[in-house]
Amino acid sequence: MPATPAWPPDSTPRLFVETELALGTQRRIDGGQAHYLVSVMRMKSGDPVKLFDDKTGEWLGIAAHVGKRDLVLDVTQQLRPREPVPDLWLCAAPIKKGRIDWVAEKACELGVDRLLPVLTRRTIIDRLNLDRLRAHMIEAAEQCGRTALPRLDEPVKLAALLRDWQPARTLFFADETGGLPAAQAMAAHPGPAAILIGPEGGFDAQERDAIKAHPQAVGIALGPRILRAETAAAAAVALWMGAVGDWS
To answer: How far apart are CA 53 and CA 39, in angstroms?
Structure first.
């Protein structure tokens, strides 16, 4: 007997929708998403689409009507509930356009719960396009199978971040002057955590002293080589996920 093909197929496109999904409802898709489904994927009536809403999980939509510029999907089945998300924040100084987009994308792919842009003295970016960053995270979630999106915050100054820090959350910071090996430090401090990554050029001396003096701060080393800010962010998140997150 030949194997029954998987349904929906692995090649089924995935889309994020802003409105909450529920069994038996319909969703109209237009704009860029409709162009992708209709013109790129050549979708026809009866074809499947995977939908997720960051609230209720992933659902199966079936094309009930396909027009030139829009289509209507019948929501017919819940495929998965919303995933549990490891309690990890990434606090990263904004860096150049393109690189900060990459940080947002990889933060989503790696499973971060919250992305907080942190303004430091050496931060060279004075404006941050949060809509663009969120679009990158949505695209990453669509591609990597996430059913939850990281929360994206307005930029906050480093001093305010430290002042308002939650006592129950460990703050791991990439310390260029030395620190415990990252995986070792993270394994020794399980529970809610955040990773603080400085800008191009790193923290200045006063900032580093203020971070080190914070009771929840733990300095970590990310190996023997100097890493770019975006590389340090991805490396530190991956190490945490492997040590105490949902990779362990």
So the answer is: 23
CB neighbours of residue 247 within 10 Å? 13
The one-letter amino acid at 35 = H
User: 73: Cβ–Cβ under 8 A, 6 or more apart, which residues?
Assistant: 26, 27, 28, 29, 49, 51, 61, 62, 63, 64
Residue 92 and residue 74: Cα distance in Å, rounded? 40
Res 166: pLDDT = 92
User: In one letter, which amino acid is 78?
Assistant: Q
Mean pLDDT for the stretch of residues 134-139:
97
Q: Has this prediction a pTM greater than 0.85?
A: yes
The residue type of 248 is: S
| Dihedral sign (CA 105, 149, 84, 183) | positive
Give the three-class secondary structure for 75.
strand
Question: Where does the chain hold its CATH 3.40.1280.10 domain(s)?
Answer: 88-243
**Topology given in CATH for the domain delimited by 88-243:** Alpha/beta knot (3.40.1280)
Interatomic CA distance for residues 114 and 31, integer angstroms: 28
User: CATH 2.40.240.20 in the chain, residues?
Assistant: 14-80
Taking a C-beta distance cutoff of 8 angstroms, is the pair 150, 112 a contact?
Answer: yes
User: Distances from the Cα of 228 to the Cαs of 163, 200, 213, in angstroms?
Assistant: 27, 7, 25
Domain spanning 14-80, CATH class: mainly beta
Q: Which residue has the higher pLDDT, 64 or 248?
A: 64
Residues 6+ apart with CB under 8 A from 80: 57, 58, 147
On average, the pLDDT of the chain sits at 94
